[in-house]
Amino acid sequence: RASARRCHLRMSLTTGHVVSSTRGLLFRAIRSRACTPTVAPSPVRSAYPTTASRRSASAVAGSLRSLPRGAAPCPSSSFASIAAVRSTARLHSTIIPQAATADADVFDATDRDAAKKKKNEKMLGHAADRYGGVIVDDATLPDTVDAFAAQLEASLKAWIAAGVRGVWLKIPKERAEYVGVAVDAGGFGFHHAEPSYVMMTRWLPTDEPDMLPPNASHQVGVGAFVHDGKGRVLLVQERRGPAAAASRPDFWKLPTGLVEQGEDIPAAAVREVEEETGVKTEFHSILGIRHGHNVAFGKSDMFFLVALRLRDGEDASAITMCERELADAQWRSIEDMAVRNQHIMPGSHMDHMYGLCVEHAAGRYAGMGWQALPIGFNRDGTVTTYSNAPTREIMGKNMRS
Prior knowledge:
By secondary structure, the chain is an alpha+beta fold.
């Protein structure tokens, strides 16, 4: 499993934040002419405010969260050619039912001769996914390049014969020499990379375009508005980056930072404030959301402006600044943030965001609250939802005509 990590780069001049990339595959590979049987789901960890699991990274098959474009659940009566899945099912924790269904080989159940022939061939260990594809088990990769090349060739022949659509091949950095074989001999392309592995894919059908989903499309960041109730707001000066105090000594901004993998928006804002300033807070509401594009390495960007309040019993004057990241941190007037900030262009998105902060401090704007609700779909666990009416009384099932 890839460990969750932080990247303290600062890219945006107006917000001073860069966001961490959303990890995982976003598995939306479309279903084939048949569907694989459903396995029992596993529990997912509870949503905010529980933080025990926020820093754990998902396994590759544990982060395949998107349904295929335009796909609908397959009825059980449609099980057909790619249907024989055997061995013990893997356990996963995701919201959407998992793509990988079992430690199994995929074969054409209607062709018994082909099935017998395949049993005698040495193939790469793999699991069938729910959309007519396979996920190679990187833990079972052979020890030599020659063995990998032979098993890859045999596997591709069998998968093509079985009508498999997409193939996901995860190569750990310890087997980096296999990448060239996968590209040159296997026809694979790069999907995404993490510090410990590279994910490669190949679309097998030749009579239709590649429908495998691209890598994660968005990055996510937070900015924290902490008001002490006495007209002061917690502001910081960056040590490095476009908003650095060395080049802009009068640029006071909100604490901003990264959303880590598996971390909820409220928890990310609380954590960033405490790490940068030592101030302990709790979540109140989300004041605004910015959605931009082509921000970092061509990715889209979502930035959440979060209102926090001092935790009960906390001293507002106590600031323990992280000198690695900040040049200064102070409680300053809200006018220093909004009115006197010469680096915020009038009428810009951050001018509007800061206006929301002013309205919130004055008690005229509450923002969106949160609640943890059951996932549903016969799965255990909860997910965090945000709305202007965070109450269990507002449910579609409660509506009456």
